[in-house]
Amino acid sequence: MDINKVRIVEDFPVPGIKFYDITTVLNDADEFQRIFKELVEAAKKMRPDVIIALEARGYLFGPALALALNIPFAPIRKKGKLPYKTYQESYQLEYGMATIEIHVDAIKPGQRVLLFDDILATGGTATAAINLIQKFNPQAISVLFFLELAALNGRAHIHNAEEIQSLAIV
Fold first, then answer.
1. Core-most of 36, 61, 70, 118, by most CB within 10 Å?
2. How confident is the model at residue 83 (pLDDT cuts 50, 70, 90)?
3. What CATH number has the domain bearing residue 151?
4. pTM of the predicted model, to two decimals?
């Protein structure tokens, strides 16, 4: 993966935050295809029964990964976006609070779950998502990221995951 293809936007969404914009990668068909193939290979090794991805940028790869592996996909969304009964989890962002939710029937007990998100920063979102997934009594939870921001040490805050992998670490 060519990390130089990821655009860094300073002071977004608030002053002091660097936003890693992956739309530049999506706009390069060759790079997008290379990255997707790497994600598929990494996901296969994790042997998931279901792919869970986080709103919004996790959706750019999560459903396609599920299709490539011929397994189900379920979303984790921001509070108030899912129409059926949900489990909810609130957590601290780098710049505020957020609540995410998942449908109560999204995962079957005993499944191997692969959680996908685009970027691992502080680990708050991934930790909240893992807390939600644990409500389903999965056999295992693996986590896959497109990019990891090592300086924020988010990996150290993620517990209860069998495996954590990032395609690129900056």
1. 61
2. very high
3. 3.40.50.2020
4. 0.94
